[in-house]
Amino acid sequence: MRKILLDTGAFVALLDKSEGKHVHCAEFIKTFKGEIYATEPVLTETLYLLGPSIKAEKACLDFILQGGVTLVPQSHESLSRAIALMEKYKDIPMDFADATLVAMAEEAAIDEVFTLDIKGFRAYRIYGRKSFRIWPG
Questions:
Q1: Average of pLDDT values for 33-46?
Q2: How far apart are the C-alpha atoms of 105 and 27, rounded to whole Å?
Q3: How far apart are CA 37 and CA 90, in angstroms?
Q4: Which of 87, 97, 100, 128 is the most interior residue, by most CB within 10 Å?
């Protein structure tokens, strides 16, 4: 089954109709067939950006609770890898949420990402070699 990582910007745009890329992101999700994964730092960033609207924050959490996204907690190994990635990509720079997604891509062999951060995810490499397939394009 196809697997994709969900980044903060795309998550916010998916849930917030006032975002410029909302329609584009919503159309992608409607046609995507597979499993969507996010990390807890992505959820935290998304909730922060949607807040302080309880309605928007609830929509985000409901999307996860209804199975729209599988939320993956961080392990000691993934946190260590995130630190190494943030140091490696400090010139871009890579934030913590992005680092956890790249670490998860390596752990789970996922090379697709649903993101609006084209610059970052074009530069990041899985195990330092493999590039991401970026959606919604």
A1: 98
A2: 24
A3: 24
A4: 100
User: Mean pLDDT over all residues of the chain?
Assistant: 97
CATH class assigned to 3-135: alpha beta
Report how far residue 105's alpha carbon sits from residue 47's, in angstroms, rounded to the nearest whole number: 22
Query: In the structure encoding, which two tokens stand for residue 131, read together?
Result: 């590039």
Cα angle value 79/28/18 (rounded, 5°): 85
User: What residues contact 101, with CB distance under 8 A and at least 6 apart?
Assistant: 5, 7, 38, 39, 42, 113
pLDDT, average across residues 2-24: 97
pLDDT tens sequence across 70-93? 999 999 999 999 999 999 999 999
Distance CA 113, CA 136 (A): 9
Tell me which DSSP letter residue 39 carries.
E
Query: Which distant-in-sequence residues (6+ apart) come within 8 Å of 60 by Cβ?
Result: 11, 15, 43, 46, 47, 50
What is the token pair recorded at 97? 């949420």
Alpha-carbon span 2 to 45, nearest angstrom = 25
